[in-house]
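Design review, sub-item: ligand-bound model
Attendees: FS, YL, KQ
YL presented the inputs for the LLZGTKA7 complex:
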Amino acid sequence: MSRPAPGTPSSTVTPAAASRAPFGARLAAAMDDHGPLCAGIDPHAALLDAWGLQDTADGVREFSLRVVDALAGHVAAVKPQAAFYERHGSAGLAALEDTLAAARAAGVLTVVDAKRGDIGSTMSAYADAFLADRSPLAGDALTVSPYLGFGSLAPAVDLAATTGRGLFVLCLTSNPEGPEVQHARAGTRPDGAVQGDAAPGPSVAALVAAHAAALNAGAAPLGSVGLVVGATIGDAVRATGTDLAAVNGPLLAPGVGAQGAGERELATTFGAARGNVLASSSRAILRAGPAPGDLRAAARTAAEAARRALRG
Ligand SMILES: O=c1ccn([C@@H]2O[C@H](COP(=O)(O)O)[C@@H](O)[C@H]2O)c(=O)[nH]1
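KQ shared the predicted structure:
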């Protein structure tokens, strides 16, 4: 088996990476073509059962391949949730690899929702796993967690830029527990200056958004460092002083459907940045399966609603 020589820099530019347009540009085109909707691939045990599949790695693979087959060409992106593959161990990871390969072959963009984040040296290994051309686990973009400090994400930021891939950095997540961390006041300003006790820093969410904005400065039509901003967060963008319009990157908005957000929430949450939003829905679409036509109809309905709310 051939292996890269020890010490081979992960930033090696392969011919594939050199010919790939940046993720932000590819996603902007896909959203224009198919509507601003990402369909989540979350093979929950209950969904596998409802589709007549076993709760095994083979069941997860079959489920995922059916979703890709039904939805490629009808949604801007698909988002496999890594946890549902990992729970089946190495065979589950192989199913994720097969899912990503099928999506690549079908021409639909992939966001691997693995929410990785660690100290910089370990983040380098995560970047190699999910963003390097040579990795079978690489999609078009990866969700990452900035809670070890935004700068710890640098290896992923660098490798994504080199290989034409993207990131979605957690900013204002859709779950009700998020505010205890994301609304808190940060200890530093975007320039790294430490705040004194007397002057509270920006909110953590605003700081994360400011870092993403700096990385996307000048990119057109859209930068490749996106944020995760849940569609369920109410007025948290205003409450945290988060400037989403300045980010100039895609905003992945989970929480549509099963978590309760709909057209109204999409229309009111994102302000002037709503044209950059990629609404994301998993269970609400997947429950329409397993018939491919029913899945497609559910995705089309969700995509039309997202288009009305975000681009109407
Ligand atoms: O803030 C976040 C970040 C990620 N997610 C993920 O999106 C899907 C949501 O699934 P639904 O079935 O549409 O509720 C799931 O994979 C989450 O881990 C999120 O919900 N919120």
